[in-house]
Amino acid sequence: MAIQSSTISDSFESQKAMLESMAPTMNRGQLSSFITHFAEKIGVEKFKARAAEEILRITKPADVVPNIYGDYRQIVHDGIGFLLSGFSLSRLADIVADQFQMGKNAGVEDRLIKLAGQIPTLHKLGQIIARNRNVEPGFKKWLIRLENGFHGTDIHLIQQKIKAEIGELIKTFSIKIENHIMAEASVGTVVGFTWQKPDTGKQAKGVFKLLRPRIKERLAEELLLLEKLADFFEKNRHCYTLANFRFVETFREIRNALQKEMNLEGEQRNLRRALFFYRKDKTAEIPRVLPNFSTENMTAMEFMEGRKITETPRLSEDRKHYARLLFHTLVAQPLFSREKETLFHGDPHAGNIYAHKDEKENDLRLILLDWSQTGALSKEQRLNITRLALGILIENESQICDAVEALSETPPQAETERETDSGKEVIPRIVREIADSQEYLSAQLTKKLFVVIDQAVIKGIQFPGELLLFRKAFFTLEGVIYDLDPEFDMDAYIVRVLSRFVLEETPKRWLYAMLLNSDLPEYYSSHLSNKDLHQIGTHFFMEGMRKGAEVLNKTIENYFEFMTFPAEAGTASRKRER
Question: How much helix, strand and coil, in percent to the nearest 5, is found in the chain?
Fold first, then answer.
């Protein structure tokens, strides 16, 4: 058995050396056919396992995981290896061929970018990692290319798909499709076009968004493998440090996110909802859907002039302004809206956010693209988020636990007999563990809130999908804001927003102060009742008293040290004289 394994390994290495020398003289199809023939010769399953190992070795995907999430590295490594070895032979052969055609001297970053472009789940993971400020700067620079990368899609195939979708409308509206890909994401391809308005005869610009060729087949394969991968991790969870991590639920979230991106009709509905939600905001622009040209398989939108927000010149003051606008538009507005249910952008990486400046008016605007991943928060959820933030602010463990329990769907499994007897012991233990973690202690208030949710998920607490999407969106947006303005203070901005609300609510607060049973957080835009404000005031008063007492005690200690020093010095001097 060992001899056979050694023979296969030697054969693989010899074929690899041969392919490296032949790759420059062959096209991808020829190379892929050669690889397929070799795989069938040595055994398909053995080849797939060996090829997956080799791709992991040369791309090193686990290395891009930040130190702060180091526990995930083995999961990332094993997960990608599982996917690769589970792909069909033809798909894996194409991936191997592309890696060979990059040449022996290709860098790890370029190889990983190429690999991510062929695996939607890996592409999505790379996009999320790219905006984490803890990523090593060199890798981060390369990963940002995933935001609007180009993956070699044939423009002629896309043009044919567009013509097949809208047929005679091309002549009716004098549509001219551009000859280049404008942008590509994990599943979508965007191409520009011009068309003539029949009522005015004027030309207008638009964009078509379609699914990348073969993406449905590839994603169907990956989603099926994700289910198997979740089961694999569940059965082998003892091999990983994330003992309570809910693999099945987490992989279900990844699957749902990618399925949403595949649903172009769903995104068309989300674009209309977003347009309505931000109808009164003059600083946020949402592309309008062009219904005449939109179909089940293609979304047509108006073209919006702008550039990727992080491409704003580094020394420009506009970057600070954009950072404030982003936080206000994508975090503060959804949280404190008066609507019963609020909308939020579920994937706000820099590739989905463009900036436009009207030089004449000196007016700055945000252009919010790609609403395939859109979430909604209920009034109750937003009240409990504020309740959690309040508990963190006043350092009230009981209030934090109550808010976490109210936000969660099901409690985590108990680890001790005591916790089994009383499920209420589980959440307090987890909250105390989180509160003692370095990530929590070093974070500001606003981020602390999302750290609690993030770490609670890892420790086994299950939250609704919408809340998890909002938490993911926050961490993505945090990276973009940090790139724009590293000094932006989220806490200070939230305080200003809430202070303005509280000031506007003063007449209502006087009324409800006399009706104690009616003084509830849901009656206020700030989500803070008079009782909540009293708690905050009392906390900071006591905190001020405590700090004042510490200063006073230190002053008294210093005074007595000063008073006793001359006496001690005099005694020592007299001893020397003797």
Answer: 65, 10, 25
